Amino acid sequence: MERIISGTDMKKVDEYTINEVGIPSLVLMERAAKSVADLIEETTDKNSEVIAIAGTGNNGADGVAVCRMLYIDGYNTCIYIMGNIDKATQEFKTQIEIAQKVGIEIKDASRLTRDEMDKKHVIVDSIFGVGLSRNVDGDYKKLIEAINQSKAKVYAVDIPSGLNADTGKVMGVAVKADYTVCFGELKLGAVLYPGADYCGKLSFDNIGFPDVSYKKCETVYKYHTSDDLKLIPKRPNYSNKGTYGKLLVIAGNKDITGAAFLCAKAAFRTGAGLVRIFTAKENREVIQKLLPEAMVNVYDTDDFDKKALDACIEWANVIAIGPGIGTGGIQKNMVEAVLESRKNTVIDADGINVISQNVKLKKMLHKNVILTPHLGEMARFENKTIDEIKDNLVKSAFNINYMYNANGILKDARSVAVTQDDIYINMTGNSGMATAGSGDVLTGIVAGLLAIGCNVENATTLAPYIHGIAGDLVATKMPKASIMATDIIEEIKNIMPQ
Ligand SMILES: NC(=O)C1=CN([C@@H]2O[C@H](COP(=O)(O)OP(=O)(O)OC[C@H]3O[C@@H](n4cnc5c(N)ncnc54)[C@H](OP(=O)(O)O)[C@@H]3O)[C@@H](O)[C@H]2O)[C@@H](O)CC1
Ligand SMILES: Nc1ncnc2c1ncn2[C@@H]1O[C@H](COP(=O)(O)OP(=O)(O)O)[C@@H](O)[C@H]1O
Ligand SMILES: [K+]
């Protein structure tokens, strides 16, 4: 597990570290600059000409220090200042004084032309960091546009200038970097889209912030790394199929067969011991052919037998409901019966749509439920537009827990998983996964993890991580355009622990 932090919270960490812990600002800055200078030295040759384009805040101060370090190491460097130096931070003024004494040339960035930029090999982008406070316009905008058109390699200090470090939103215009080094932790604005597309190769360096400073800030987001796969429960030798859960998959309808198959098969590959599919009678034959390992119970849409459903619910210890079920009265009754059982439950797709239309069902959500909406489903659930959800991705996901006491995976290119304890941003996966049925596979993975004994919290946060790795493994074997949901399922076996 690693941490992600918003720009706003990082400022609190900065302040606490400097004012309460007593690590001087310039000491932190020296390490920040060193990490960028080291990266430039590792990825360029010494003949490279480097310019820092520096705003007059502490991000600019970092850039000036980067240039000074490279200059001392033999690089040809020059600093271009953007903004009014009279209003500069004390750290900036200090860094400029040092640079001048060292012998580095300092110029005015408002006179910097595209042609001049093209003659340089490396641009250190240190115009704005987490202190960006409003939309970028005027000369700043022109400068950033020129950086983006130049042929130089761009190294962003802390975050590409112009990105909102809390949301990843482009504030009018933003630098398109080849490399970005975040200080402290990865910045939320650098991992969320569209920001993520502006960072190039993204890394972070702690630069000496102590743990106690993070504890003082309000929210720390997290992301899973391969170490966390150890959270998946081990399979004891002395076990049988009942040990690995009785999963009921309520999915599919008259014209929709695939959803139940994809979800159930993904659950099997994740380790579920027994899977029973409850679906419309028209699907029985094809599902039995596609997935003979699953038990199949069916219902008649025109003559729904609630008792048969109740028996299935009674049998199960984990339930996945929603993919392709439809949103009529029968489906409402199904969702209601499932919620009444209070069993560990994943609710996806139409399951969520049904709840969105029904206040009573919303109130029945509980702590053993995991909702897995995509942006459209979340928009309906919250009665908002998709753009509103996109612009507030983390907050929308958070609301699933805050408002309804449930867990959630808000699916997007960077899915956000929320539980009572944590908010995880998923860093795995690729655009090849934007394909029909991919979400059904995720539902199956969540349900499979619950079935093998993962607690609700771990199942919520690990499922998108595993799903994304599976997609990334597929992408090593075929073009992203060709990836299908069934390919993703087949990689799950290469991720689960032996
Ligand atoms: N010791 C520390 O704290 C450490 C900090 N570190 C580094 O400091 C960075 C944060 O520094 P920061 O807080 O000084 O803010 P920063 O990102 O330089 O921007 C502020 C400047 O931008 C200006 N400005 C803003 N928006 C604007 C706009 N749209 N258009 C035009 N101008 C605009 C704003 O001007 P003003 O709003 O006052 O007019 C001000 O001049 C952080 O990202 C990291 O790199 C590390 O070294 C670790 C130790
Ligand atoms: N560009 C992307 N990068 C990473 N993951 C993606 C991307 N696009 C889609 N996904 C993932 O693929 C899945 C799509 O789910 P969903 O929209 O419910 O599809 P469907 O309804 O067709 O099953 C989600 O888990 C989502 O996070
Ligand atoms: K920057």
State the main characteristics.
single chain, 498 residues, alpha/beta, Rossmann fold, UDP-N-acetylmuramoyl-L-alanine:D-glutamate ligase, 2 domains, nine-stranded mixed sheet, seven-stranded parallel sheet, elongated, binds ligand NPW, binds adenosine-5'-diphosphate, binds potassium ion
| CATH topology tier name of the largest domain | UDP-N-acetylmuramoyl-L-alanine:D-glutamate ligase
Distance between the termini: 21 Å
Which spans of ≥5 residues are poorly predicted at pLDDT below 50?
none
Can you list the strand order of the major beta sheet?
13-12-11-14-15-16-17-18-19
Binding site for (6S)-NADPHX: 58-62, 129-135, 140, 158, 259, 324, 374, 440
Keywords: ATP-binding, Isomerase, Lyase, Metal-binding, Multifunctional enzyme, NAD, NADP, Nucleotide-binding, Potassium
Domain YjeF N-terminal: 10-215
EC number: 4.2.1.136, 5.1.99.6
Describe the structure.
With 498 residues, the chain is an alpha/beta fold. The protein has two domains: 2-218, YjeF N-terminal domain (Rossmann fold, 3-Layer(aba) Sandwich); 226-494, UDP-N-acetylmuramoyl-L-alanine:D-glutamate ligase (3-Layer(aba) Sandwich), CATH 3.40.1190. Helix content is 43%, strand content 17%. It contains 20 helices and 19 strands. It has helices at residues 7-21, 25-43, 58-72, 90-102, 114-119, 138-149, 188-191, 211-216, 258-270, 284-290, 306-315, 329-341, 349-356, 359-364, 375-382, 386-391, 393-404, 438-451, 456-475, 485-491; strands at 2-5, 49-54, 76-81, 105-108, 122-126, 153-157, 179-183, 186-187, 201-205, 221-223, 246-250, 274-280, 295-299, 318-321, 344-347, 369-371, 407-410, 416-418, 423-425. The strands form three sheets. A nine-stranded mixed beta sheet has the order 13-12-11-14-15-16-17-18-19, with helices on both faces. Strands 4-3-2-5-6-7-9 form a seven-stranded parallel beta sheet, covered by helices on one side. Strands 8-1-10 form a three-stranded mixed beta sheet. Helix 3 (58-72) packs parallel to helix 4 (90-102), helix 9 (258-270) runs parallel beside helix 20 (485-491) and helix 18 packs across helix 19. The longest helix is centred in the last third of the chain and has 20 residues, at 456-475. The protein is elongated, with a radius of gyration of 26 Å. The model has no long low-confidence stretch (mean pLDDT 96). Bound molecules: ligand NPW, adenosine-5'-diphosphate (ADP) and potassium ion. Adenosine-5'-diphosphate (ADP) binds next to helix 18.
